[in-house]
Amino acid sequence: MKLRRVSPSKIMVPEVRVTAQFDEELLEQFKQSMQEVGQIAPIICCYVDNQYVLVDGLHRLQEAMANKQESIDVAVIDGDMTDVLTKNIFLDHLRGKTPVSEMVHVIEVLWKEYQLDSEKIAAKTGMTRDYVERLQLISTLTPMCRRALDEGRIKVGHAVALTKVGDPVRQETILGQQLLYNWSVKDLEDHIKNVMAIVETPPAPPGPAGPSAPPTVRCYFCKQAVDISEIANPNVCRECAGIMLMSIAQARAELAKETPPKAE
User: Tens digits of per-residue pLDDT, 232-243?
Assistant: First the structure.
């Protein structure tokens, strides 16, 4: 580690990082201290590609720039961009006042962009591997769910449970139920299991088809529906067809006269 005096304007602040949070009263005290006493502890930077990249001390850097200081004390450590991100999350996580969404974002970049697995990230950040993997899971949540975690409306355990819901709309619907009923993590996990069981259960296969009725055709002459196998279809001319119709009608009339009426 080397101590340098560096112009604040020459220090690059990464877009992805975690920053310790102050409440309004504490932030005001910090600003007054910087104006009256000045910088006590140096900020920390890595020198990457001929540029000072901030690791820790954003508030001190911002106040130095606001007070138009020409230079600021910088402790320069060796490392590359992965060291910038992991040391940043290590130092700020120890203070315990960093938004989880910022930590998730840093872990996501280390994992996807710099190809560090959870074991390497844990070793470089001082966090447990289990906690790193939880943050990796949380990175798959919708912005609404991650914002609820940042605001303290749900806990990390709730957020991890929500990652089991792949559909974004259903994820946010269950989040709304969680905020309404304030379930424990265990109760939320049970609710999600029930919901997913209903969603993922395939419909019951249709039962075997019953015996189908034999196909029928309506007879042109008697108008009755008869089995298709009983249908004869000779080719006849109009004259013969007329004779057949008259003959059948006469025969049916005579049959009706011979058949006694049914007793009631």
Answer: 666 667 677 677
Residues 62 and 111 in one domain: yes
List the domain range (segments joined by +) for residue 76.
Answer: 2-139
- Note whether residue 209 is domain-resident: no
Do residues 3 and 71 touch, judged by C-beta distance below 8 A?
A: no
Domain count, the chain: 3
Per DSSP, 146 falls in state H
Same domain, 177 and 52: no
Question: Could you tell me the pTM of the whole model?
Answer: 0.60
> Per this entry, what is the length of the chain?
264
- What is the tens place of the pLDDT at every residue in 145-191? 999 998 889 999 999 999 999 999 999 999 999 999 999 999 999 99
**CA separation for the pair 177, 26 (Å, rounded):** 35
Q: Which of 178, 211, 179, 212 is nearest to 192 (CA)?
A: 178
Tell me, yes or no, whether 94 lies in a domain: yes
DSSP notation for 37-73: T---SPEEEEEETTEEEEEE-HHHHHHHHHTT-S-EE
> Cβ distance 15 to 88 under 8 Å?
no
Estimate the crossing angle of helix 129-138 against helix 118-125, to 10 degrees.
Answer: 120
Read off the amino acid at residue 178.
Answer: Q
- 51 in a structural domain: yes
3-state secondary structure of 152: coil
Looking at the structure, tell me whether residues 80 and 111 fall in a common domain: yes
